[in-house]
Amino acid sequence: MNEQEPKNKIGMKIYYDLQSGNVIQITPESAGIVVETTREQDFKLYQALADKVPESVGMIQLEHVAYSLDRAEGGLIARVDPETLEPLFEYPPKGDEEPQPPGVSFTSQIAELAAENGRMKEENTELKQAVAELSLVLATVMGEVNNYDIH
User: 3-state SS string over the chain?
Assistant: First the structure.
């Protein structure tokens, strides 16, 4: 660990409505000499949470600097997918583009594409091996056919 790198890193917490997945409160991430707050403390500290019934609110905590690419692109966490517990981002429209509904983060899309790329490379290697084996079989068969004198 770098000497100047903070030793205590706390990722942001996303509190969301369990029914709709809509974000209620996002606590900031922090690093350095900090103490992580409890769920109960957050409900007292943030007005948006104090107004809610705790049993109706879900929470996910992200790793420190998670989704930094998405945030750098102006992405805001708007919802949490209740099934996958993945944050869903809204991004500002570019140019004359229509605003899009909250969607999967760029970070998740990149990870999915990287995994798909890995699967495709593996499949490509397997296909090359199969073609090489078929070429050997074909060469063997053609050699045997040419050895017969057909008259």
Answer: CCCCCCCCEECCEEEEECCCCEEEEEECCEECCCCCCCHHHHHHHCHHHHCCCHHHEEEEECCCCCCHHHHHCCCEEEEECCCCCCEEEECCCCCCCCCCCCEECHHHHHHHHHHHHHHHHHHHHHHHHHHHHHHHHHHHHHHHHHHCCCC
Q: What is the pLDDT of residues 95-107, one digit of tens each?
A: 888 877 776 766 7
Contact between 82 and 27 under an 8 Å Cβ cutoff? The reply is: no
Q: How many CB atoms lie within 10 A of CB 73?
A: 14
Contact 130, 121 (CB under 8 A): no
Partners of residue 17 on adjacent β-strands: 57
Give me 26's structure tokens: 């996002």
Q: How far apart are CA 60 and CA 16, in angstroms?
A: 8
Report residues of the chain scoring pLDDT below 70. Answer: 1-7, 103, 105-106, 145, 147-151
Beta strands 23-27; 76-80: pairing state: unpaired
Closest CA to 31 of 57, 1, 10, 17: 10
